[in-house]
Design a protein that fits this description.
The complex is a heterodimer. Chain A is of the alpha/beta class. Chain B starts with 5 loop residues before the first helix and ends with a helix. Classes of the chains: A alpha/beta, B mainly alpha.
């Protein structure tokens, strides 16, 4: 992909819309500092990537907010960048419009797109921009940042990001494990601390430690634990009775001092799920639909009479079937019309009964709903009051507790008293609200059973259920808030009781026994977390090896080839000598440390970064970017080089011109920008035959830069070159074709200059074709014969510009040279 | 079928270098818009599975 034109409006230093044509080989742009050169480079970078590397690398992003939009741009005008790319034989237009501070809309040939239709992994491919600030960020930065820069340059940035992500996951896993896992592990840690603190169990603790280190199986510890337990029970106790015996010994000893406990059971996940379901049910159950169903049940008040009538007719008709036309009750003869009347009345009663049957079903369904409310109310109330009742039963033992806990555990005892006061109120509130709700429920139920429906009753029930739900919510919060301090108080109580009863050892053995499974699980968790170090190491070595392959082999050679082109004969032999990855003394690759090697007269230096001059580092950075841009797989044939020769002396600057030439020869379209006009004159001379485009930014104000296209060289130089080539007997077909090209360009240059001189109008020489050349010369009043000769010259040599299999002719060139020389004479 | 991305190829290669099934599982979790978060959640899940396991 090569760039044909760049159009930009309102972007960075550009305000008004400007279009810049780009030469397929070499485009040079000169501009003093702050005249908007870098805005051109950044515009194309922003178009392709949605951001610029300057903003991406900025430490404080806030400082760059809104920096893409030109501050003088009219409020109604939009910021956009458009680039016409030549893509094989096609041309395609990419356009990006800034719609917010950092948002954009993209279009390809006017059609909206999410992503550009090029490599989906565009972000991983080296960007075709070589900018000074980018070089600084690549070399003169801390190791991790340099690694990132290299990774991006080499298309390994995703691998670098993977390494960073796993680094942070594997280094600090304990700090980020889920709370329940952390709590679980801390309980086992606490048990381990208790074991370590009991001198009587030194051997047991040693085995425990060996198990934790993976040096002994768990069974060794488990067997030793069981043997310790045996020491506390009478000899001859069967294996299965050892633990129950221990528990009994401990409980009996403690009960002699105190038999209660501070128990406020926490809500399990199941409790919370049931609670949530019940409360949702209470809030939604009394719906408008339920009230409507309830209202309809009023009609059942008259149902009994209708049903009895229907049953009466049923019996009557049954008799009538046996004795038609005879009254089943008095035996009187019935006329047909009376029989018909009876049947009709029966049918009416039957229809009414059917309707009531639907209502009866509705009544049953309603009663079922009331039963469901009652069931849920009971369960919900029990869920909370059982906890509270159990906890509040400690009130009867407060005197005893005060003797055990005071004065040593004054704070815990005080929090217990506070919890008792608070939870008594909670219990009372819950009980009251529950009673009110159940009374409202009973009233509603009774009204249905007695067929005395009253909508106010059902509305009241709904209100009371919502009140109850609110009380439950606040109660659950209060109970949950008290649970941790009460759990702590109970642990303190147990500890004190064990001390008083002398059962600390037994309790520890019981806990160890009961938590054997948990100990193994905690060990498994520790192993998983410790194992992450191994995973981290594997990833580090893998990424390091990939990076080493990328930098030390092909990369080093490629960069060295370009670097050698910048070196001058007089250079001291202190140079970059290759890339590597830092390694440990064992030869393992150090994580994320790219080494830039240098040598001084054959002797290795510590690092290029600390040893080479800024100019050489600058050269190295340039070569690095060039080498990566030439790697296969890069979709861009263009390369922007922004102010490459800063801090270089004249000789090195001149050497770089050769690099520009070589890049063009290798097929790159180079767009070179600099503030150094003299050097750019040298570049034009050094790349004279490319006949590229040359622009000068001559002025800058709030409307943006003024960019003027200047001739690549003078027509005199062109004619001199044609003359020299035509007289060189060794000149090959390529050089002769070049002479033809120069003749064509000389014709357009002279025509443009002539037209300006005679008619006072500037014509763009690059846009003149054969027809326009002839028209201009005619308007300038030149002799017809000369015009025809020039026309012939232009027509023929124009093919040199367009046709690849064009055949050239030395004598013809000499002849045409004379014609053009004749044309040039008219200027004088 | 779309071609595997560079990252997918790296991860496949990495999976062959680790033997611990837990590490394979964590590498497999490195997907989506926020792959780091995805791995962290997988690690959390793994640890919770340990404490909730019946064995």
């Amino acid at each position: 992909m090569k760039i044909k034109t760049i159009t930009l409006q309102g972007f960075r230093g550009f305000n008004q819309k400007q279009l810049i044509d780009s030469h397929p080989d070499l485009t040079l742009i000169y501009g003093p500092n702050s005249y908007g050169k870098t805005s051109i480079t950044e515009a194309v970078e922003w178009l392709l990537y949605g951001s610029t590397s300057k903003v991406d690398k900025g430490e404080f992003k806030d400082e760059y907010k809104g920096s893409y939009r030109n501050c003088h741009l009219d409020a109604n005008a939009s910021t956009f960048v458009k680039v016409d790319f030549s893509f094989e034989s096609d041309q395609v237009e990419f356009e990006s419009e800034l719609v917010d501070e950092d948002q954009y809309n993209r279009r390809v040939d006017g059609n909206p797109v999410e992503q550009w239709p090029i490599d989906p992994e565009l972000a991983s491919i080296s960007r075709p921009f070589i900018m000074q600030h980018a070089l600084k960020y690549l070399l003169l930065v801390p190791p991790d940042q340099r690694f990132k820069g290299f990774a991006q340059l080499l298309g390994l940035d995703k691998l670098g990001a993977l390494q960073t992500d796993f680094d942070s996951i594997c280094i600090k896993p304990k700090s980020s494990i889920p709370t329940e896992v952390a709590t679980f592990c801390s309980q086992i840690d606490s048990l381990e601390s208790s074991l370590a603190a009991r001198p009587a169990f030194n051997n047991l603790y040693s085995l425990y430690s060996l198990f934790r280190k993976g040096k002994e199986p768990f069974t060794s510890f488990s067997t030793a634990l069981f043997n310790e337990c045996r020491n506390f029970v009478p000899g001859g106790t069967p294996d299965e009775s050892v633990l129950p015996n221990l528990l009994k010994i401990r409980d009996d000893s403690i009960k002699k001092i105190f038999s209660g406990s501070i128990t406020l059971t926490p809500y399990s996940d199941e409790d919370r799920t049931s609670n949530s379901a019940d409360l949702q049910y209470f809030v939604k159950v009394v719906s408008e639909d339920l009230i409507r169903q309830y209202s309809e049940l009023v009609k059942l008040q008259t149902s009994d009479i209708i049903i009895q009538q229907s049953q009466f007719y049923d019996i009557g008709l049954e008799f009538l079937e046996k004795e038609p036309n005879q009254c089943p009750f008095c035996g009187q003869q019935l006329t047909d019309s009376i029989v018909e009347h009876i049947k009709k009345k029966h049918q009416q009663a039957k229809s009414e009964t059917d309707r009531f049957s639907t209502l009866l079903n509705q009544q049953q369904s309603f009663l079922d709903t009331l039963s469901e409310i009652e069931r849920r109310l009971t369960n919900c109330q029990l869920r909370h009051t059982l906890r509270l009742t159990t906890f509040l039963s400690i009130i009867n033992s407060l005197d005893q507790l005060s003797k055990i806990l005071l004065p040593k555990h004054k704070a815990h005892f005080a929090s217990l008293q506070e919890a008792i006061t608070l939870l008594q109120e909670v219990n009372h509130g819950l009980d009251k609200s529950y009673r009110i709700a159940t009374e409202a429920l009973k009233a509603a139920k009774l009204s249905v059973l007695q067929s005395k429906e009253n909508v106010a009753l059902i509305n009241e029930l709904g209100k009371k259920l919502i009140d109850y739900s609110n009380i439950v919510l606040t109660s659950v919060n209060s109970i949950s808030a008290q649970e941790p301090p009460m759990s702590n108080a109970n642990a303190i109580l147990k500890h004190e009781l064990n001390l008083l009863a002398g059962t600390e050892d037994i309790t520890l053995l019981i806990d160890l026994n009961e938590k054997q499974r948990s100990i193994r699980k905690a060990f498994e968790i520790d192993s998983i977390l410790a194992g992450l170090k191994g995973l981290r190491k594997t990833i580090n070595q893998y990424v390091g090896t990939k990076m080493l392959d990328a930098v030390s082999n092909e990369m080093t050679q490629d960069v060295m080839d370009w670097y050698d082109q910048i070196r001058t004969k007089g250079d001291p032999k202190v140079h970059f000598s290759g890339f590597d990855m830092d390694k440990t003394s064992k030869g393992e690759i150090k994580s994320r440390r790219v080494q830039i090697k240098a040598s001084s007269y054959g002797k290795d230096l510590i690092s290029a970064v600390s040893s080479l001059s800024e100019a050489k580092l600058n050269a190295l950075g340039l070569c690095l970017s060039i080498a990566t841009n030439l790697k296969p797989g890069c979709p861009f044939d263009s390369l922007f080089i922004d102010d490459p020769i800063q801090s270089w002396d004249e000789e090195h600057s001149a050497q770089f011109i050769e690099i520009v030439r070589n890049l063009v020869i290798k097929g790159k379209q180079v767009i070179l920008l600099t503030h150094n006009k003299n050097w750019l004159d040298l570049v034009r001379k050094g790349c004279r035959s490319f006949n590229g485009l040359y622009y000068e930014i001559t002025y800058y104000n709030e409307s943006g830069p003024t960019i003027i296209e200047k001739p690549w060289c003078t027509w005199t130089q062109r004619l001199e070159e044609v003359y020299a080539i035509s007289n060189d007997e060794t000149a090959d077909a390529v050089r002769l074709q070049h002479a033809d090209e120069e003749l064509r360009l000389a014709v357009t240059d002279i025509t443009s200059a002539l037209y300006l001189k005679i008619k006072g109008v500037q014509k763009d020489a690059n846009k003149l074709n054969a027809r326009e050349v002839r028209k201009c010369l005619l308007e300038c009043g030149l002799p017809d014969g000369l015009i025809d000769r020039i026309n012939q010259t232009f027509d023929i040599t124009d093919d040199a510009h367009h046709i690849t299999d064009y055949s050239t002719h030395r004598e013809r060139i000499r002849c045409y040279h004379n014609y053009v020389h004749e044309l040039a004479q008219t200027l004088k | 079928m779309t071609e595997p991305s560079k990252l997918e190829l790296y991860l496949e290669e990495l999976k062959t270098l680790v033997t611990d099934p837990i590490h394979k599982r964590l590498l497999a979790a490195y997907t989506g818009d926020d792959p780091k978060d995805s791995v962290e959640r997988e690690l959390d899940q793994l640890l919770i599975e340990v404490i909730e396991s019946e064995d």
